[in-house]
Design a protein that fits this description.
By secondary structure, this protein is an alpha/beta fold. It has one domain: 3-Layer(aba) Sandwich (Rossmann fold), CATH 3.40.50. Helix content is 52%, strand content 13%. The protein has eight helices and five strands, in the order E-H-E-H-H-E-H-H-E-H-E-H-H. The chain has a five-stranded parallel β-sheet, sandwiched between helices. Helix 6 links the parallel strand 4 and strand 5. It starts with a strand and ends in an 8-residue tail after the last helix.
Length: 186
Amino acid sequence: MNVPIIVVTGAECSGKTTLATQLSEHWGRPLVPEIARKYLGKNLNYHRDDLLIIAKQQHRKERELLDQSSHKIICDTDLLVIMIWGEVKFGTCDSWIYDTFEKNLKQNELSRHYLLCDYKIPWEADGLRENRNNRSELFNRYTEKIKHYGLAHSVVTGGKKERLAKVLSSRAHIEKENQLNYTESS
């Protein structure tokens, strides 16, 4: 079974959750939420080990929804985000995150397309966001990782409505590139 996965990714406060939610609602497909928000609450006093716990929960939730769905799922983040987060915050991340991410990429039954959200939208503080002043650096790091792993991706720019419209209008290109099936929900 080839279950397509759309992963919304990018720097902090780049509109990932908004776009992922919009796509999930528009297509009527399951949304894998960002586990870190619930896990951390408003607590910025976390450690490298917490990222491993978050990564395992994020991966488990994605696998659960994949097992339940015969159509695409939308991910509001995946292990790539946690990998970059660990590298930026702690200089590295746990080998389980690297290994599991790379293993996921090699699985033939999964087609992933990354929507890399541009950071050029207004910053909204929320108690968890830490990198207000280096979002361009983070965006560049995401771009480098995506290229390093050879991930199918699109860069999404503009405001909330414009981003959604761009993704929906580029649907045919994304489908062809990834052999994804974007049939609308009935």
